[in-house]
């Protein structure tokens, strides 16, 4: 895992340095006053490198069929808020003359029991990624538009919390709340008119079985994902399915967004299956949430 991260970092930084050298050669030809104006306008307009990655949203109201009971000691109700912040940063491009782009990304997702007396955050998931997107101009019947190759880490930030004196393996301890997943994935994106289809295949990186908090996680959340993104006028609808062929478990998620004002959208999300959050990856949840999104 460390070697993969180091490879992406080295490759991205080297390509970024090459791009910076090109930009510097052009910048020295411009008057300093012009460069100052460009820098000032970028600062005033907020034109920085961070861009939305996954959907950014705040869902003040989400309800599921039953109470959240991952841990019986927690007095959680079946109504809560949910929010997600996700951004990406392009660090380099065109290293192999394929017009490919290299990114870092971070996604922060929180489940907030805002309607209880103490209003705790029930679960928080942290997901950094490094990935490369290779554009494809496929004019065949398949209409392949891009290939994305990535390394991703997801965890709930709980750290090691099991009792080694009682349990050899982390996952055996019923009080262990730590969950994590390190994986490689490949995603193919196809476009047919206003329908964009994403097909993703996941490979989990091996961990020491004694330290693995959730060895069966992919048997619940699935090894592959199919997502349909359909645009109809101002509406955007998505349907996402995940499946594990070994256990026949997985999930289905539907979202619908419509412009509200400026860059804000009404946002509906319906989920049914496993893996809504890391802490509940092996619990079947059916849930509907409503609120606002700030990107699509």
TrEMBL record:
The keyword Calcium applies. The active site is at residues 153, 155. GO terms for cellular component: cell outer membrane. Ca(2+) binds at residues 118, 178, 213. GO terms for biological process: lipid catabolic process. It catalyses: a 1,2-diacyl-sn-glycero-3-phosphocholine + H2O = a 2-acyl-sn-glycero-3-phosphocholine + a fatty acid + H(+); a 1,2-diacyl-sn-glycero-3-phosphocholine + H2O = a 1-acyl-sn-glycero-3-phosphocholine + a fatty acid + H(+). Pfam families: PLA1. It is a multi-pass membrane protein. The keyword GTP-binding does not apply. Its EC number is 3.1.1.32, 3.1.1.4. Binds 1 Ca(2+) ion per monomer. Keywords: Calcium, Cell outer membrane, Hydrolase, Lipid degradation, Lipid metabolism, Membrane, Metal-binding, Signal, Transmembrane, Transmembrane beta strand. It is found in: Cell outer membrane. GO terms for molecular function: metal ion binding; phospholipase A1 activity; phospholipase A2 activity. Its cofactor is Ca(2+). Belongs to the phospholipase A1 family. Homodimer; dimerization is reversible, and the dimeric form is the active one. This is Phosphatidylcholine 1-acylhydrolase. It comes from Sulfurimonas aquatica.
